[in-house]
């Protein structure tokens, strides 16, 4: 939608000048006629007045609201509310300073809805990028008159959650990139380098060692089938990623990834850290336990852990304490279960869950650091060994010929 200027005249001949947001000039004329106004002129926006960011959002071309953008918005809104700035004025200031087009449009729509009498939480619920967790916490903050404090907690929670997710992604990304680069180098050697040596060896007509023959045969295979293997690899990769996005595929992949050495522990601890932190934040804001569990389950990336926690919620609904079903999950540490039990007994479960989240976060830090130190030399040794084997296999006949 863009902003059109217009000139119109009412029944009494009084002239009106104004502007209206619409998709087309025709919509402007139709809207003015419905107000019993006769349209004299409709002026479309000039190139200098054109809002590119808004146009991109309307066409679905703008980037979505990112966690960092939302966290920054939350912190700034909390600061303004604590300084006594009225909510509508705060939203107007944030709208003017916001760089992300999607969030800028969302802030404007939220301000309009709030101006029309909706609560902030209700206005945010209708906007993409504001999760159920976010809206429920804002709702609790408004109801309890502690919106400023809730927004600060929410910003801290989002920062912690993003840090944990980034750690898990970096832990998975580093070995993937190194192995990918190594695979490309080995493929290039097999397809382009080894055939050069093969021609020289055939010209000499000497006996070829078994390891050299194995490398030559492998090179011939790559050279012959690469036109099929390379596109086949990318097609297979696309199909694989499409499959793991399906409900059944995601469960199978998540179950497999949880059983991987080192990586599995990082995935489990990271998801449990996110769960504990989210639940602590919701309970601290006064959200009911059952509703809080529902929201927590929605925020989890791992389908297996989410499925197990649905069973936990079911048991809680039946009247069990939170600790009882959690203690039956084999990957949930017993020490953590006991900490939550103490929190339930003392009535400070939100504080205990926050400590549990910190424990998991520290464990993820330790695991990621240890994995990086361990996996880097292993990858270098394996890839270096493969490349060295190829080179030795190619030069070995030459050394044997020189020795003879």
Describe this structure in words.
- With 404 residues, the protein is mainly alpha-helical.
- The protein has 3 domains: 2-50, Ubiquitin-like (UB roll); 56-130; 146-404, Type II secretion system (T2SS), domain F (Receptor-associated Protein, Up-down Bundle), CATH 1.20.81.30.
- 75% of the residues lie in helices and 5% in strands.
- It contains 16 helices and 3 strands.
- The protein has helices spanning 25-34, 52-58, 67-82, 87-97, 101-115, 120-125, 132-144, 147-204, 210-243, 247-258, 263-284, 289-299, 303-317, 323-326, 334-346, 349-403; strands at residues 2-9, 15-22, 38-43.
- A 3-stranded antiparallel beta sheet has the order 2-1-3, with helices on one face.
- α11 runs antiparallel to α12 and α12 packs antiparallel against α13 (303-317).
- The model has no long low-confidence stretch (mean pLDDT 83).
């Amino acid at each position: 939608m863009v902003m059109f200027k217009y000139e119109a005249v009412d029944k009494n001949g009084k002239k009106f000048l104004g502007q209206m947001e619409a998709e087309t000039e025709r919509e402007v004329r139709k809207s003015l006629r419905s107000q019993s106004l006769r349209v004299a002129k409709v002026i479309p926006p000039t190139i200098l007045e054109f809002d590119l960011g808004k146009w991109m959002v309307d066409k679905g071309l703008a980037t979505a609201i990112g966690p960092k953008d939302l966290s920054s918005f939350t912190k700034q809104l909390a600061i303004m509310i604590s300084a006594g700035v009225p909510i509508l004025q705060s939203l107007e200031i944030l709208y003017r300073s916001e760089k992300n087009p999607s969030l800028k449009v969302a802030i404007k729509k939220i301000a309009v809805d709030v101006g029309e009498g909706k609560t902030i939480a209700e206005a945010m619920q209708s906007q993409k990028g504001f999760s159920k967790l976010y809206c429920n916490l804002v709702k609790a903050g408004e109801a309890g008159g502690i919106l400023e404090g809730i927004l600060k907690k929410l910003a801290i929670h989002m920062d912690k959650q993003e840090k944990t997710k980034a750690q898990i992604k970096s832990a998975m990304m580093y070995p993937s990139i190194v192995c990918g680069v190594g695979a490309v180098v080995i493929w290039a050697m097999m397809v382009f380098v080894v055939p050069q040596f093969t021609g020289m060896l055939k010209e000499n007509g000497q006996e070829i060692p078994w390891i050299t023959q194995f490398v030559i045969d492998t090179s011939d295979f790559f050279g012959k089938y690469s036109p099929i293997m390379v596109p086949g690899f990318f097609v297979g990769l696309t199909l694989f990623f499409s499959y793991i996005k399906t409900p059944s595929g995601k469960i199978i992949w998540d179950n497999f990834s949880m059983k991987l050495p080192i990586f599995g522990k990082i995935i489990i601890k990271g998801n449990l850290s996110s769960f504990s932190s989210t639940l602590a934040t919701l309970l601290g804001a006064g959200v009911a336990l059952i509703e809080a569990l529902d929201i927590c389950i929605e925020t989890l990336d791992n389908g297996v852990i989410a499925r197990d926690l649905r069973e936990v919620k079911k048991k809680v609904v039946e009247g069990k304490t939170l600790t009882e079903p959690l203690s039956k999950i084999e990957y949930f540490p017993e020490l953590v279960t006991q900490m939550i039990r103490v929190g339930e007994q003392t009535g400070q479960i939100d504080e205990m869950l926050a400590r549990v989240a910190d424990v998991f976060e520290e464990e993820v830090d330790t695991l990621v650091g240890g994995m990086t130190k361990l996996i880097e030399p292993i990858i270098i040794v394996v890839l270096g060994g493969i490349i060295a084997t190829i080179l030795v296999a190619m030069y070995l006949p030459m050394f044997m010929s020189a020795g003879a």
